[in-house]
Amino acid sequence: MTLVPPTTLTRRTLLGAGGTMLLAGCASRPAANGPATGPATLRINLIGQALMRENICAQDWPAKDEISARLLSADLTISDLEVVIRGPRSGTPTRGAETLHTASPDVIDCLRSLGVGMVNSASNHAFDLNTGGILDTMQALGDRGMPFAGTGMTLADASRAKPIDTPGGPVALVAAAAGFIREGGAATPTRPGVAELRRGPDGLDPEDVTRMLAAIAATANPGTLVIAYLHDHLWEADNAVTPAWKRRFARQCIEAGAGAFFSHGAPLLQGIEMHRGRPIFHDLGSFTFQTKKVDDAYDHLAWQSLIAECRFEAGAFVSARLVPVQLDAQGAAGPNDLATRGRPRLAHGAEATAILDRITALSARLGQTLVRDGEAALLEPSRQAVST
Asked: CA–CA separation, 338 vs 104, rounded Å?
């Protein structure tokens, strides 16, 4: 099967069936605090996963403008698309209704309007509507000018870095998923699917790891910032604990040339650390969380998240401002209003304090110090802990 070429794209041109995108005519801008000859400033927001089954932009909500302004202020905001897009090739569902994560294409339009400019498409839910669902999702992303990484027409396509030009310079995303990838969902040399990192008895499959590290190394250069991404469902008994294998893998990605690593999977925050002066965000929780599970399926921690506002100068990580986000555990009309459940808002007051206290404690377990700055926290290379 082949993807139909996209129709009208706004600022981007699609360069391949797997979703490699380039922004046309976007030159790197000078740093906001220096002359044109100074180091380029690149601002990237990394946010929680987008489990958006219903288009939450169909209605305004009080926090919408504040959230959108925050995301749109960056050169690029990256999230994880935690749904499969329904389309003409969608196949038989591979799971029950409660955990079937599907959506119509207008959720992509919603994410774009909120400021999301690139997504990971590799997850355990990418195969929820069989191979046809993967194809429809890639098609919808391409048609709407949303760059993506992690799925493709072949394993090589799904595994390669996907570049995008931003006002602050070129960025490339390398993405994969580990855990709960159902039979038939992984890409192969001849089948569309997810770039999977399999786990064997001794840890992650060396061939899969090598493939991802090679994609990072082949793309990383002084002019391109590579972001490494993993969708992870190989959890510890306590989902807030970052597994040792994941910490090792994240460091390998940094050593291969990634300027930052971030991840989702467990629908709650995990700790933050640094390696070789570059940030590792082990889990940023959810940006939107439209789960159909009953109210008590998740405790209050599942509705906490962060925006990691990262700043790079000439490719080097300078700092990240961690802005707390609170999600609505119930819809605007109550528990049965799933269409508005899980909408995000910037946290303030006691909510902000609780989220920042939690991420500070989780990061301290990994040996990393965060500095409080009002209703945010700062991650800085000068406070990097010795790797443990």
From this structure: 15
HSE-up of residue 207 (Cα within 13 Å, Cβ side): 6
| 64-72 and 106-114 helices, crossing angle to 10° | 70
User: Rounded to whole angstroms, how far apart are CA atoms 354 and 377?
Assistant: 12
CA angle at 208 for the pair 156 and 49, rounded to the nearest 5°: 80
Nearest to residue 110, comparing CAs of 268, 329, 340, 382? 340
Run of H or E residues at 365? helix 349-365
DSSP 8-state code for residue 333: T
Burial class from Cβ neighbours inside 10 Å (0-12, 13-18, 19+) for residue 285 reads: buried
Task: Give CA–CA dist 141/121, Å, rounded.
Answer: 9
Average pLDDT, stretch 359-370?
Answer: 97
Integer Cα distance of 172 and 227 in angstroms: 6
A 10 A CB-CB count for 172 gives 26
3-state secondary structure 25-82: CCCCCCCCCCCCCCCCEEEEEEEEEEECCCCHHHCCCCCHHHHHHHHHCCCEEEEEEC
The two tokens of residue 286 are 């959810």
Q: What is the pTM of this model?
A: 0.89
Residue predicted with more confidence, 334 or 80: 80
pLDDT band at 293 (very low <50, low <70, confident <90, very high): confident
Which letter, b or e, does each residue of 94-128 get, where b requires 16 or more Cβ atoms within 10 Å of its Cβ?
A: beeeeebbbbebbbbebbbebbbbbbbbbbbbbbb
* β-bridge pairing 118-120 and 76-81: parallel
Residue 209, phi then psi, degrees to nearest 5: -60, -45
User: How far, in Å, are 214, 316, 342 from residue 258 at the CA level?
Assistant: 11, 11, 31
CA 334 to chain centre: 29
Distance (Å, rounded) from C-alpha 23 to C-alpha 63?
29
Q: Which domains does the chain have, with CATH numbers?
A: 12-383 (3.60.21.10)
